[in-house]
Amino acid sequence: MKISGRPLALMITLMLIATVFAGCSGLGNINPNAKLTSDMDEINAGETVNFDARESTTPNPTIIEEYRWDFDDGNKKTTKQGVVSHQYIDPGYYSIQVTVVNDQGGIDTEYTSLFVNSPPTLVFEVSNVIRTGSTVLLDASQSLDPEGGVVSFEWDFDITVDSNNDGDPSNDADATSAISNQLLLNESGNRTGRITVMDDKGATNTSTWTVMVISRTFRIIWEPKHVEFEWNGYLEQGKSYEIIKNPFPESRMISMNSTLILARDLIPIMWPEDNFTLSIRVPTSGWSTFSSTTHENITRNASATILKDEMNTYPETGYTISADSSDDLLYSLLNQAGQRFGQGDWIWTITADDCHPDIPIDDIDPDPGNDWKLIIDFLVLVPRISEIGI
Question: Does pTM surpass 0.70?
């Protein structure tokens, strides 16, 4: 077929016009090129991940107008910026997509994947009620990781105490085994702690627990008891001898009788008897006294006696009382206000004041000293504590 020059020129002109109008009307390739990345491809449930589509491009002179996000968990979002954050609550695998749309209606879609790790399953047993002085068995050995990973444990025995002294009582790890029997509770009341199980990807599951610690019940009987001591020795004139003794620490003092007895001189030339002084001090009670030996009856030894009665009162006996331990109860019984007289060390001092009132022979004292004996008798009350209702 033959085409004349004029028709040919007209055809070329029409083709050029068609080409121009094709570019202006969007008939060419105007679709953008979507790009999508995330700052993490694996997170734990409850964490947030950041998605970035800012490297997406679109042909000139078009511009990207919006980013349409589908997070594959039922949530969608449209943004003007190419970055977005999203929190995943449920564990599982997700395929996230972004659709990039430009001002000419061109679109492109890109995908990325994400794994959301499930937290470990926490299963633990703790005694609900125990008595003071008992050990709590804490057992979390049935806890597990649904994905089959290895789990570790942290027990905080008291959420109100900062046991590692870092200023934060919430991060203590008092024990790290699945089963812990290290917790001995000696005080009554409620004890609240925390157990955390962690999988190998750092996901955790935490729960608090509370144990009610109840006190024990004891029966108290005050038993009277005589406690006797005896010392002896020899003293020359001007010399002293000191005895320091805590008579019976675990008791209540009622009365005391201390008697100093001097050995008799059998030879009349050594008469009269020597003179001694007995003194007593109880520093913790602020009490002291003394007595000198006398020889009122020549048929008996010279002696000095010191009595102390009604140091404390007789308590009620045969009753029951609650306490955290028998040791705590004993301490409270022996330290009741107004009933502590005589506690601590007693100090007895024996002094030979005059050991030669006898007549010297050729200026030589035939009796420069004297033998002595000290007899002490205490009446005390001893609390007998027995636990009942175990």
Answer: no
